[in-house]
Every structure is written in C-alpha cells, then in structure tokens.
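worker-03 picked up job from queue 'complexes'. Input manifest follows; two sequence lines, order preserved.
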Amino acid sequence: MTSLPEHTEKSLGLVIDLDTCVGCHACVTACKGWNTENYGAPLADVDAYGADPVGSFLNRVHSYEVQPDNGPAQLFHFPKSCLHCADAPCVTVCPTGASYKRVEDGIVLVNEDACIGCGLCAWACPYGAREMDPAEQVMKKCTLCVDRIYNENLPEEDRLPACVRTCPAGARHFGDLADPDSAVSRLVAERGGIELMPEQGTAPVNRYLPPRARDAAPQTDVLAPWLEPVAEEPHGFLKWLDSALEKLG
Amino acid sequence: MHPAASIILFTTLSGAGFGMIAFLGLDVPAPRGWTAFADFALAYGLAGGGLLASVFHLGHPERALKALTQWRSSWLSREAWLAVLTLALAGLYAIGLVFFRTRIAPFGVPAGALALGTVFATSMIYMQMQSVPRWNHWSPPVVFLGYAVTAGALLTAETELALLFLPALMILQILAWTDQERRERTSDTTIATATGLGTRGTVRAFEPPHTGTNYLMNEMGFRIARKHALRLKAIALALAMVLPFLLIATSGNPFVVALAAASHILGTLVQRWLFFAEARHVVSLYYGR
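worker-03 finished. Artifact:
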C-alpha cells in the first residue's frame, strides 16, 4: 500500500553542511557510480558523448549566490537529493504501490518492477528528487544506499551512503534523525539545522546546516591595508589635468 | 509542466466522453435504438480513446493494470477504477437502450454519476499537487467538470442547456485563470525557502548542477506557451465558448451543432495545453527559473 506509515522506527537521513561543501561534485559521481552498478536499474545516460547529453542522477549540486544587505556576496554549494520526507507526497500519489516508505528506517524507495513510469511522483515532489530513467522508463531516486548501509560484505567503515563515504570535505553526515542522541541529531541541534521548503508540509528528514556567520572583518583581504594608497584627490600634474579637462566641458 | 500530447488528448477527449455518458445516463437526450447506439459509440470512442492515449504515455504500459491497486491513497488509481466502473455500467445500460429500447435506470443513473466522478478524480490528480501552486487551487475540479458537462451537452445536442453552460463556463474559466495567477504569485515557496538561505540575503541561482538539461528541467520547466499565454487564452475562449454559442444560437441544424461541438473540443485542447504549460513547478526555483 502506498499509504504512509504513521510512525517509523528510525528516520535515517543525511545532514548536509553548507558551510563545508566545496562544490566538488564527488558525491554526484560516487552516487552515479554506486547506483549504476548495484541496486535496481542502472542510471542511464543518453547521447553521453554527443551534442545533447542527458541522464538520470540521484544527487545534484547547485550553487547559489547570496547578497546580504551589507557586505560582499557569498557563494554556497548546495547538494540536493531525496530528503526521505515523513509526509512524502511522492508515495501517496503512486497508483501502483511501487513507491513506499519503509517502517523500519523511514527510507523512501521505488519497487522498480511495479513502476509503470507515469511520472506522477516526480510531479508531486517539490524538491526534484525523482528522475525518470531515460533508458529503463522507471522512476529513480536516492535509496540512501540501502544496499551499502546494511551490507555485511562491506568493511564497517564503508557501510555509509556512497555520497557520505566519498565526500572529501566531510560536508555530508548520515544517521538516525529520530534519535535525539545520535551524532547527526546533535549536529543539527548545535548548528541549527534547517528543513527545505517547510511550508510544503512534507516534513523532510534530511537537514541542511546553514553557513556559520562570517567574521565581521572591516576588510576582505589581509593585504588590504597595504593596498590603500589610492589617491582620492589628485595632486600636481594630475590635478592640473583634471581641472583643465573640466574646463573643456 | 510538460504539456504531453497524450495527457492533453486524454483529459480533453475523456472529459467530453464522460460528460456525454453523464447526460445519456440521466436520460436527458433520451435516445433509443440505433440513435442510442450512435451516441454511445461516440461517447465510448472519446472516453476510451482518451484512456488509451493516457496508457501509452506510461513508461511501462504493460504494467498499467497495477494502477488499480492503490485506490485507498492515490487519485490516479481512483480515476482508473471510476473509469472502468463507468464504462462497464454504461455498457449494460446501453444494451437496454439499444437492443430492447428500455431504460434501465438503476444502471443509467449510477453510470452518469460515476462518469462525473471520473472527471472529478482526474482533476484531483492535479489539484492535490502542492508542488504546483497554480494547480493547488479550487479551480481544476470546477473547470474540468465544467468543460465535461458543456461538451456533454453539445455532443448530445442539448442546445438549450449548452446555451446556458457556455457563457457560465466562460465566466468560470476567466475567474479561474485570474485567481490561479494570484495563487502562483503569492505562493509561500520561493528560492529563499527552497534553499533555506533567504534569511541571510537575496538568493540567486549562480550555477546549475550541469551544463546540459535533465528530466526535471524538461518535465517541469516548460516555458514556450507562457510567452503566448494571453493570445492562447483568447483563442481557447473563442473556440471553446464564443463560436459554439453563436453557432447553436443561430441554428438547430445537427451539422451546425456537430460543428459547435468540434469547435468546443478544439478550444478545450488549447485550454488544456495552457493548463499544463503555464503551470510552474516549485522545483524550477532551484534552477533559478
């Protein structure tokens, strides 16, 4: 049934640190690699080396510029994948029961054998977390690497989602967000982790750690004081030239 | 949203077909024998043709029957059930009218009600999408049902009713477009809430995740029709309401009524194209659109 469970034993999810992400796209590549070789239909590319390449990805990194009222603009890299919402609208719209949310850990998955490829779940998701595979014509989405995190054939340190395992900056964290004592929950509490689009009422599990406040330094560069002697008022020849040119009108 | 031809055809033709079944089920035009056969053949052609178009829009049409399983939670599944039940009951009802010239009201009335229920379920698929502010609005059920009953009246040549429905539908449609515009403009979801960075300053999409396009951008970020939206709205109103009204107001000739119905359906196709193409999904905020 595509009804949502009233309660899940765990709420596994990701915590993404916008302060730390350097926008290298390693998580995108690791995700595509793991999910092409393992669970479900491979993530296809069409016209990969041609003029108009397109393909399915479960994780993409956007970049946003934020212009504060005072001070210079800041740039943030913004990885986005399925947020494994508690009130996932993608699950309830599914007419076949292919989309479901697991009671034991809260992971939202697609049973690809039952997916008719109607695309309604992708429409229902406000985050753009679901993409139709261009070759298999079934809906693909982040599985939270369900085939890694419980996989006893892997060394223990690898039992993490591929994106988290590969992140060179440590910007991605994985854990149970329903447990207030878990490392991820403590991190969220400490850094004031936020939900994306809370007004959509989807109750996402994943959290984003907002960038820390920047130091309010008076200059943007340590060398700035030595770069200062730019004449505001011209002197000598330049002063004469300035006034002569003014007179010319 | 991507205005897929199959979905535009489906909502338009099935809407008209189910609108016809509603009229036939309630015995408003009261055909018997071969006239009834012709009416039901047209209604089944429209409703069934539309449904077939929608099935071929699926990535895996061979698994379409699985869509009947989730009626408890999914409007798409409910729509499938209602369509099947309507066509089954209307078939039994048609047998009575065509071969025995007898009206079996216990089949006809529920078939008519279920036909309207099917159109309602179709509209709810769109209305429930909180991710598409323009659809998450009172108008889809009202407008879809309005077009269905108007097409039903025209196709069953109930011109007196059609003369009432056409101006009413026109007012309703203009109201719906205006209020949908407002709904989209005043949506709570902005690039500020989408990124959670809005409290720090003005957020601007700086760089997309890739240089090419992707499924999400093709499916949700359709922009071409919006450029001509106003002209298309005028064309839709002219074809769907004004021209049919003028035609049936001046003549009761069956060919003129058929022409009016054809014009109405053509106008509905334009309206549906806009319904999809104009609707903006909130995911386009992530792409700075």
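worker-03 released lock.
Residues 159-185 of chain B form the longest helix (27 residues).
Residues 5-196+207-285 of chain B form a domain with the Formate dehydrogenase/DMSO reductase fold fold (CATH 1.20.1630.10).
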